Amino acid sequence: MTFADAPIAADSFGKLNAGGLRLGLVDTSDRDAFAAWIQADSRGFHEGRVAEKQIDEQLQDVAYRRTTGVWDDSMTDAATPVATVSSWPTPLTLPGETSVSAWAISSVTVAPTHQRRGIARALLEAELRTAHSLGIPLAILTVSEATIYSRFGFAPTTMTADLEIDTRRASWTGPAASGRVQFISLEQLQSVGRGVAERARRGVPGEIELDDYLWGRLIGLLGDAKDEAKNLRAVIYHDAAGAPQGFALYRLASHATDFAAHTATVEHLCTVTDDAYAGLWRYLLELPLVTTVSAPLRSVDEPLIWQVTDSRAVRTTHRRDHLWARILDVTAALEARRYSAPGRIALDVTDRLGFAHGRVLIAVDATGTAQVSPLDGLEHNGEAPADAASLALTVNDLGALYLGGVSARTLVRAGRITELRPGSADAVDATFHSPATPWLSSWF
Ligand SMILES: CC(C)(COP(=O)(O)OP(=O)(O)OC[C@H]1O[C@@H](n2cnc3c(N)ncnc32)[C@H](O)[C@@H]1OP(=O)(O)O)[C@@H](O)C(=O)NCCC(=O)NCCS
């Protein structure tokens, strides 16, 4: 048995079955069955019918994922599922450049004809049960709406910013890069850039490993972005020793009346070193005939703001949640990351679905490594040790704090977390703080 064919959670199956619906796995080696699921997924996101060529791509690169559907056998088109979800385990980078296996959930759709009768709930609960039964300590997703997933124990754990830069006001004041920028074809980038992306993601909490499909889609060679790929330009940055250390993908749009006022949209900019970061951003800001550089889905803590003459020329046009996390195994999740300060923290975690419910003691040593033990055990007699910080919180808020990008003090002020001992939030913030700001630079 692999993750892809682990049994369907009986609870969810029973609930949907009682409503005349059939929850099951798609045999992704069966082209017709998988194609019907792909069409349902696309329809669920209000996208067009998927072309045969794109179905071929998904047969090759997405078929390995766990692919679940819900069918209503009473429908005229009974072969097309009325709901979809897909999932797979992926390494998620954590503070301290460690990583954990996370259960990535994608393609959550319910047909408008079948919405609001508990199908998404049954699907999500089944996903969480499956991940838990496979020993995967947390689930992650990126969301269409911020209102759906809290009820399942998820919370935003990385934030993102869309930037718009007026390049007439933003002259470069950052360091001079030592290497050089050169154009590269998307096909060349496909192989050369992959290693760069993989090295970069290991340094940033919140980044995941991109599978072949996500990588191909990111660089415009696969999926629905493909038609627009002809407008994509790719540049790669080599350091002084000739090693690739970053790349950028951008597209240019002309101004209605002024040819000297193009907008460059940075679809993706990925760097391993600060030198590459400086080299690529300077290149983008100094593009001729360009007055606006737009950069969606950036980190909320870009050094760029400190590298231009006028920091107000770099405007954040939109700031929002991006990666959502749901902890399923508190001990495994918390022991996987590194911490910024030693100390002991008692957590009283509430989880309506039960997975993470209970009281634990986190003991962080001088190397930033944690040991987590149940507080209800005999050793602690149910009491938090006198020197421990102590918080009561929901599994959502533990997920929010997990990568160190959200402050416990803020969540206490928001009335979401309760300090069981005064000063506990600050102690947690000192310990959970991540030196690298958490960020996920793509969608999945
Ligand atoms: C969002 C979507 C998956 C919900 O499916 P559904 O089967 O109608 O949802 P359910 O009936 O199982 O509802 C489960 C809960 O979520 C709530 N809910 C459902 N859709 C919601 C929405 N869009 N916003 C806020 N809450 C929502 C329901 O009220 C219900 O709450 P409760 O159980 O706490 O009372 C479906 O409307 C859809 O496919 N939308 C378009 C695609 C999309 O956005 N998918 C999400 C991708 S991240």
UniProtKB/TrEMBL annotation:
Superkingdom of this protein's organism: Bacteria
Pfam entry (one): Acetyltransf_17
Keywords from the UniProt entry: Acyltransferase, Transferase
Residues of the N-acetyltransferase domain: 21-175
PROSITE patterns: GNAT
Gene3D superfamilies: 3.40.630.30, SCP2 sterol-binding domain
Active site: Y149 (proton donor), F444 (proton acceptor)
UniProt-annotated binding residues for acetyl-CoA: V108, T109, V110, R116, R117, G118, I119, A120, R121, S144, E145
Record flagged with keyword Transferase: yes
Record text on subunit structure and interactions: Homohexamer; trimer of dimers.
Protein family (similarity comment): Belongs to the acetyltransferase Eis family.
Record-linked HAMAP family: Eis
Name recorded for this polypeptide: GNAT family N-acetyltransferase
